[in-house]
Amino acid sequence: MYLTPFQERMLKGEFGWVYAKALEIIVKVGEALGSDRLVEISHAHVSGVSYSNIGEPGLDFLRDFYREMPRFRVYTTINPGCVDYGMLSQVIDNKYLGKQALIDEALVGMGAKPVFTCIPYYHRPPLPGEHLAWGESSAVIFANSYFGAMTNREGGPLALASALTGFTYYHGLHELENRVARVLIKISPLIYNKPLSLAGLWIGENVRKVPMLEIKEKPLYEIKALLAAMAASGSHALAVLDGITPKGTYKTSIEETITLEFSDVEKYIGETPGTSETVLGYVGCPHTHPEELVILRRLLEKYREPKRGRLLVTMPPEIASTYSSIVRLLLSRKVDIALGTCPVVSVLRKKYDLMLTNSGKAFFYMRKIHGLKVGIASLKEIVESIYT
Ligand SMILES: C[C@@](O)(CCOP(=O)(O)O)CC(=O)O
C-alpha cells in the first residue's frame, strides 16, 4: 500500500504506539481487501461502545488505548451505551452504569462527542462525497444513501482506528465504481399503508446487489426505518433512493426490476398482541427523530395513561433537551423515555411477552437478544394498542 511520508511516520510510531497500532489495523485490513492507498476522513462514528455488547475485553481494549492519552484526529461521535443517561427509564436496566462510565470516560477523554446515538447525522449531517469511517449499520446505510456520503460498514475497532488516525483504507463504497445500482425496486401502493421497514426486511433478505428504490415521497423517519431494516436483515450499506440520493454519488446499470407486493412483506408484520400478553411498545430504533416526536405528541395528547403495557421511546440526549416540551408531554402520559441507549445494546429490567414496534431492525434483533415475540405496526397502531 502506498503511504504518504506523514502516514509512514505514524506507522513507525513517531507519534506513539497507539497511533501506530491504529494505522497498522487500517493498513492490514486495507491490504487484505486489495486497497492501494488511504483516504482522509472527516467524521468517524464509533460503534461497539456498549458494555453489554463488548464486555470486559472491549473495556480493556479501550482503556489500554486511553492510558496513553491519545486524541482523536477527526470529529468523532459514538453509538448508544447500555444505560439510560436520563436515569428515568423503568424499562432499561442501568446495572452496568459503572462499567459503561469507564468506557465513556475513555472515549470522551480521547475526544469523542458524547452523543450516544445511532443517528449521528442528526448532530452532523455529512456532505455528498465526503469520506467517513462509520460503524453502526443503520447509520452507514443512511449516510451513503440519503446524504451521498462515502463510508464502508465498519466494525467498532476499525472506526476507532480511523478516529485516531484520521484515515481509512480507500476501497469499497469510497470508490464511485462500487456505488452502482443494479436492481430497480418498485414498491406497490398497498405497502405504503404500513411501516416501510417491512419492505426493508424483504429487500435485506432477498436482494444481494445495490438496489435502487423508487419510493413515493416519505418522511425521513420512514426512510431511516426502511434502510435500517435492510442493513439488519442483509448486508446492505447503500441503496440508491431515486430523487433523494445526491446525483454524482452513484451510478446506475439496472439489470433487473422487481415490483414488491404487499404479499411479499406481509409475513414480517409478525405477532399481534393476545389479550393476556404483556406488551412493550417501542419507538426509537434507529433513535427517534424530532419528526417522530411531533407525531407521538399528536397521537398521545388525548390519552392520560397506558391501559396495557408500556411505551418505550429511545432517543439521543440532545434531542430530549432540544424538544423538552414534547418530552414532558410524553412523560406526563407515562411514556418510558430512555436516553442514549436502546434495547439492542442494553438489558431490560423485566420480561415482556411481546414487543410492538415500527422498526424492522428491532424486529430482527429483539427476538434474538431478548427472546421477545415481535410485531411491526405504525406509530398510531402502537399508541392505540397501549393506550386504548
Ligand atoms: C446491531 C447494532 O446496531 C448494535 C450496535 O451495537 P454496538 O454499538 O456495535 O455495540 C450494530 C449494527 O447494526 O451495526
UniProtKB/TrEMBL annotation:
- Entry keyword set: Iron, Lyase
One GO term in the molecular function aspect is: lyase activity
**EC number(s) in its UniProt entry?**
4.2.1.182
**Which regions form coiled coils?**
none
Top EC class for this record: lyase
User: Ranges for the Phosphomevalonate dehydratase large subunit-like domain?
Assistant: 1-384
Q: Which InterPro entries match?
A: PMDh-L-like_dom
Q: Does the keyword Iron apply?
A: yes
Describe the reaction catalysed, as an equation: (R)-5-phosphomevalonate = (2E)-3-methyl-5-phosphooxypent-2-enoate + H2O
According to its UniProt record, which protein family does this protein belong to?
Belongs to the AcnX type II large subunit family.
Primary role: Component of a hydro-lyase that catalyzes the dehydration of mevalonate 5-phosphate (MVA5P) to form trans-anhydromevalonate 5-phosphate (tAHMP). Involved in the archaeal mevalonate (MVA) pathway, which provides fundamental precursors for isoprenoid biosynthesis, such as isopentenyl diphosphate (IPP) and dimethylallyl diphosphate (DMAPP).
Q: How does it assemble?
A: Heterodimer composed of a large subunit (PMDh-L) and a small subunit (PMDh-S).
Protein name (database record): Phosphomevalonate dehydratase large subunit
Q: Which organism is it from?
A: Thermosphaera aggregans (strain DSM 11486 / M11TL)
Tell me the classification of the organism that encodes this protein.
Answer: Archaea, Thermoproteota, Thermoprotei, Desulfurococcales, Desulfurococcaceae
